[in-house]
Write a structure and sequence with these properties.
The protein is an alpha/beta fold. 38% of the residues lie in helices and 16% in strands. The protein has 2 domains: 2-52 and 272-356, no CATH class; 58-254, Ribonuclease Z/Hydroxyacylglutathione hydrolase-like (Metallo-beta-lactamase, Chain A). The protein has helices at 2-18, 24-31, 106-113, 130-133, 150-157, 222-226, 230-241, 259-283, 286-296, 301-324, 335-348, and strands spanning 68-73, 76-80, 85-90, 95-98, 120-124, 145-149, 169-171, 174-179, 182-187, 199-202, 207-209, 247-249. The strands form 2 sheets. Strands 1-2-3-4-5-6-7 form a 7-stranded mixed beta sheet. The protein has a 5-stranded mixed beta sheet with strand order 8-9-10-11-12, with no helix packed on it. Helix 8 (259-283) packs across helix 10 and helix 10 (301-324) packs across helix 11. The chain binds 2-acetamido-2-deoxy-beta-D-glucopyranose (6 copies) and zinc ion. One 2-acetamido-2-deoxy-beta-D-glucopyranose (NAG) binds next to helix 9. This is Metallo-hydrolase/oxidoreductase. It comes from Mycena venus.
Length: 359
């Protein structure tokens, strides 16, 4: 309530200023670039974004097959359809599959079937999100042992989804999957993209896996990859870098990642953090920003907040994007959405409240 009261102080000033004027046009200028928080306008479907840099290039995918299988050595393979990725490890006793993205779907069975005749005996969930494990029930026939973090079990327990069977084995901190000659180390370092999102490491092959945190060669997907806890997401970059790996499987984009990709995205997140903090701490004139909305929506504090958050995010995005165009793919595409998530995070997860902080 304190927060709303303080906002009203700005509101009253803004109402005075806006009195007798129509600010519909100014408002529209801000709204036009806001692509997720309002219904899309006709022009949104034909926006021409900046060309992708070569850093974003995917592996070449056979269009007839619709998938690519890459041999990472020592029995480890990664699979991608150009948008999603996962991995599987062929052991002397059976196959360990990590994740089952539904877009890859049956093609994952073909990828494995064309690599080995051994059955899938283990299925590991990176996290509970359906777009990464919604193909899990395709393995029902071979009754794999499903392994996941305890948080993932809880999140899958209700509501139940037959396409995402509940894990049989859960753990809190660390768990080592040993099947035949393969070893896959699972560890949990707190919530980041989601609660329960795991780090995985295959020591013999020096391969790391972390899903939906780093997007190699690309700016993050919308809202920082739909991150549930941005401080944890930020810290996850350093945790990932602490593993001794050569390549990592990211869950998205049609290529693998390296430590360089992790370092680069870490810089992007830090830059966004600083720019959004700067926007919140006096980076724009709040009275001017929310005045027209306040005038048109008296007493509607949600409308005031929408105007405030939108301008904060757009100010942050405008400050950040130019530095990343040509460095990370599609830095312009979700610039607003990523800045919006960072502004929210700074406010409620980092306590950077700008004009709404304790006086
Ligand atoms: C793509 O895959 C199909 C089916 O396996 C195969 O016949 C074709 O030769 C492949 N194309 C290329 C360019 O490798
Ligand atoms: C484990 O066995 C599989 C199947 O024989 C083989 O492809 C793979 O290279 C082996 N990996 C290790 C780490 O020994
Ligand atoms: C091998 O891949 C092809 C093409 O994707 C598929 O039709 C076939 O069923 C696969 N074989 C096995 C044994 O999975
Ligand atoms: C897969 O198996 C689980 C039990 O392990 C079951 O609850 C689920 O309904 C099955 N899903 C499908 C789609 O067959
Ligand atoms: C952009 O953000 C940086 C912090 O990253 C800040 O120092 C700078 O003043 C901001 N520039 C503008 C134009 O807001
Ligand atoms: C914000 O803009 C208003 C005019 O819209 C102006 O009166 C006020 O001084 C500005 N505030 C700051 C801090 O610049
Ligand atoms: Zn996810």
């Amino acid at each position: 309530m304190q927060l709303f009261r303080m906002l009203s102080v700005f509101s009253l000033a803004a109402v005075g200023l806006a009195c007798g004027h129509s600010h519909a046009h100014d408002e529209h200028e801000v709204v036009a670039r806001d692509s997720i928080k309002i219904a899309p306008g006709p022009s949104d479907t034909q926006i021409q974004f900046a060309p992708l840099p070569s850093t974003a290039d995917p592996v070449t995918i056979n269009t007839t097959l619709g998938y690519f299988v890459g041999d990472l050595g020592g029995g480890v393979h990664w699979v991608t359809d150009g948008s999603y990725s996962n991995m599987f490890l062929v052991s002397t006793h059976g196959v360990i599959v990590v994740d089952a993205p539904p877009t890859i779907g049956h093609k994952l069975l073909y990828a494995i079937g064309n690599t080995t005749h051994l059955p899938v005996t283990h299925l590991v969930y990176s996290h509970f999100h359906a777009d990464h494990i919604g193909g899990a029930s395709l393995f029902n026939a071979s009754h794999p042992t499903i392994i996941a973090h305890a948080e993932t079990f809880s999140l899958l327990a209700s509501p139940r989804d037959p396409l995402r069977p509940l894990p049989h084995v859960t753990f809190e901190d660390k768990y080592t999957v040993r099947v035949g000659n393969q070893t896959l180390e699972l560890s949990y370092h707190g919530p980041n993209h989601t609660p329960g999102n795991l780090f995985m490491y295959a020591p013999a092959q020096r391969i790391a896996l972390l899903i939906d945190v780093v997007f190699p060669g690309w700016a993050p997907f919308a809202e920082l990859g739909i991150a549930s806890f941005v401080p944890g997401l930020t810290a996850a970059h350093d945790v990932l870098l602490s593993f001794d790996f050569d390549v990592f499987v990211a869950g998205h984009v049609g290529r693998l990642g390296t430590k360089q990709d992790v370092l680069l995205q870490k810089k992007y997140i830090e830059d966004l953090h600083d720019s959004c903090a700067s926007a919140i701490n006096g980076g724009f004139n709040v009275t001017t920003a929310i005045g027209p909305t306040v005038a048109a929506n008296k007493g509607n504090v949600w409308a005031e907040f929408k105007a405030y958050l939108r301008v904060a995010a757009q100010t942050c995005a405008d400050n950040t994007t130019s530095r990343w165009l040509g460095v990370l793919g599609a830095a312009d595409v979700f610039a607003f959405e990523n800045a919006y998530r960072m502004v929210d995070s700074l406010r409620v997860e980092y306590d950077v409240l700008g004009p709404f902080s304790v006086s």
